[in-house]
Amino acid sequence: MGDPRRPPAAPPLVIACALGIELLALRTGRAGGALGPTTVVRTGMGPKAAETAVRRALGRDGTGDAAVMASGFCAGLGPGMHPGDIVVAEETRDHSGTTPCTGTGVLVDALVRAVPGRTVHTGPLTGSDHVVRGTERAGLRATGAIAVDMESAATLRTAVRTGPRPVAAVRVVVDAPEHELVRIGTVRGGISAFRVLRAVLPAFHEWHRSLLLPRR
User: Which of 168, 166, 82 is closest to 125 using CA atoms?
Assistant: First the structure.
């Protein structure tokens, strides 16, 4: 029998991102006191790639009860959003349905501390199978979503379908209605978003640690 005085073991943390540059940012960022094993998985672009990669990652030995975090860049949908702003999903949405996120408030508080001076937005994060621009972006905003990306919804949906587990999504805005990628200033906005993504890992680990706290 185990020692009853010993705290319960932390489940692993799997962080999923799509792009090589996102993987670089997350792997080279500040570690921030991981609790239990942490794995950063590059899924590739698009919902189908995310589904396949997450299912494979959660099928490995030792990851069956892992908490899952979807992260990387996104497109902001709201007016006044800027590259480098942070989006914390309350839920992810796509054509297959909605996945509620765990511990949104914990993540917001942790991100405010980890990346001081950056605006943190909370709300629904919607999924798409292609890059969204112009009038289509306005249409998604009308549904109540605050940001869009191609992998988060598929990542979280696949994660919870493999078994009950905490899931969350944190994205960094790389373009927004007034700052679309095709415009001048794209490089500056991308560098800003990359630097922010490098700084978020301590907040992810704080969220991970909070999963062991008693629920009220």
Answer: 168
Task: Burial-class residue 4 by CB neighbours within 10 Å (0-12, 13-18, 19+).
Answer: exposed
Whether pTM > 0.85 for this model: the answer is yes
Residues 11-57 pLDDT 10s: 799 999 999 999 999 988 766 555 568 899 999 999 999 999 999 99
Tokens 């001076």 sit on residue: 117
Strands (E), 43-105: 67-76, 86-94, 97-100
How is residue 169 written in tokens? Answer: 């999504």
DSSP-based helix, strand, coil % in the chain, nearest 5: 35, 25, 40
CA pseudo-torsion sign 121, 75, 143, 96: negative
